[in-house]
Amino acid sequence: MKIFRRTLYFIRIISNIFFLVLLIFMLPYIYESSWQGFLFLGMVFIYIGMLLWTLIQKNPVYQETISYNLIMICIFLYFGLITARILLDTRIKSSLYTINIDYCKNNFFLLSLIILGMILNTILLALATEDDESSKIKKSS
């Protein structure tokens, strides 16, 4: 089970890197998406800060929690599907088919809410581990 947890953690780290690369390609669409795009960018910057904080902290709860890692991987797969839909669809390049910017707005708003949930989940995991550590210290005293 430990190997599965480690593998899932490394897949999450790799998916974070791909997420940032895809984010660069999606910037024009994000800027066109009005306040939903800027909300998404804000949430992404906060998320990147939280990600760096969790990596620096090296808390094993972020590596061992299967549901946490799975949800994050699924978020980035969803963003990858949106990116593939927008950037790789050959019909978008023709003059007969144009992508509706509402598609981007709705998905960026939805992703912003999901990333906000993941940020709050990260904070709750950090608080829970601090409470566990402080209670262990009190019991051993």
Describe this structure in words.
The protein is globular. The chain has six helices and no strands. The chain is an all-alpha fold.
| Class per helix and strand makeup | mainly alpha
Give the integer mean of the pLDDT values. 84
| Helical proportion, percent range | over 70%
Q: Measured on Cα atoms, how large is the radius of gyration? A: 18 Å
Number-wise, the strands total 0
**Overall shape:** globular
Terminal Cα span = 33 Å
Low-confidence stretches: none
Summed up, the helix count is 6
Percent of residues in beta strands? Answer: under 5%
Q: Give the SSE order as H and E letters.
A: HHHHHH
Largest sheet: none
What is the element layout, followed by pairings?
Layout: H1 2-32, H2 34-57, H3 60-64, H4 66-87, H5 90-93, H6 101-140
Helix pairs in contact: 1-2, 1-4, 2-6, 4-6
Labels describing this entry:
6 helices; mainly alpha; 141 residues
Describe this structure in a few short sentences.
This protein is mainly α and 141 residues long. The protein contains six helices and no strands.
